[in-house]
Amino acid sequence: MSTDSPDDVAAGRRAVRDTYRSLRLGLVALVVLLGAAVTLEAVAQGCWQTSVSAYYWTGAHDAVVGALVAVGVVLLVYRDVSDLTNTALDLAGALALVVALTPTSQEPTCGGAVVASWAARAAAGDPAVADVLPGVRTGVGALLVAGALATVVRLAVRRRVALTAVERAARLGAGLVLAGLGALFLLDAARFATTAHDLAAVGLFLATAAVVLLRAFAARAVSARWGTAYTAVAVALLVALATVVVLRSTVPAWRHAVLVTEAALVALFGVFWVLQTVELWGTDVRGRGAAGRTTAAAREGRRPS
């Protein structure tokens, strides 16, 4: 039988709620940090790189890598009531760490000339590729060790729940993606160093897009207002991607398609996260007596009453 006083219980609930709110606000701050670092570096250089990843090789290096690592950790530790959303968040978080720890191909400042891909430069024996390999080996190797430990702990303490066929398939798909990247690293670290960044970046944006689309779908059954808001973000995300694809195919000389795509996706995911933070701001931590109501509400995708 618990001996906690009502004041202790209330203080504990406030601490959990404030931690949850800080976690959500922290991701917003990290997105702002990333955008500010890229913008300040562009202003200092007087031009823009062709992608956000290209700022790895500029004065924004530390901020870009640090922000991506922190974003990856937040996405991994954040939990949603939907198993599908959690799978997408886990995949996005893990891939964000890979993106941070594996550089994209270095290019002249602001993309002054077309350069060969990392893979082509590696095949030609470019020393720049050899220079980044030790860092990739150490960073990703450490990531694999930490990831394996975290996975074992999560499996040991997680609550056992029945999964639908779709949820099992999503988990299997995410696991195969990460296992494939891990196998590539263990079998051929040099090839991993020259290819993993682009592969992980594509997967990261697809996973974050899935988070937005899943929330838009779920919210429509709960609240017309929030359903409309999330759907608008999801539609804007798809329209942005389609627009960039069309412009890239019709204007071949446009070299900033990747930068615009990344900026649009990051900004729209930031908008989505802010909207969800506002929606969930009043979510409270219930005591044991309300556990049944909390669980039922979570399954229905709404806040407990």
Determine the number of helices (DSSP H or I, runs of at least 4 residues).
10
Number of domains: 1
Mean pLDDT: 83
The radius of gyration over CA amounts to 21 Å
Summarize the main sheet.
none
Give me the secondary-structure category: mainly alpha
**Model regions low in confidence, pLDDT < 50 over at least 5 residues:** 288-305
Distance between the termini: 26 Å
Fraction of helical residues:
over 70%
Order of helical and strand elements? HHHHHHHHHH
**Structure summary, number of beta strands:** 0
How large a portion of the residues is in β-strands, by DSSP E? under 5%
3D shape: globular
Keyword list:
single chain; 305 residues; 10 helices
Secondary structure blueprint with pairings:
Blueprint: H1 6-45, H2 61-77, H3 83-101, H4 118-123, H5 127-157, H6 165-187, H7 189-220, H8 224-250, H9 257-280, H10 291-299
Question: How would you describe this protein?
Answer:
With 305 residues, this protein is mainly α. The protein has one domain (35-112, 120-281). 75% of the residues lie in helices and 0% in strands. The protein is built from 10 helices and no strands. Helix 6 runs antiparallel to helix 7, helix 7 (189-220) packs across helix 9 (257-280) and helix 8 packs antiparallel against helix 9. The longest helix is centred in the first third of the chain and has 40 residues, at 6-45. The protein is globular. Residues 288-305 have low confidence and may be disordered.
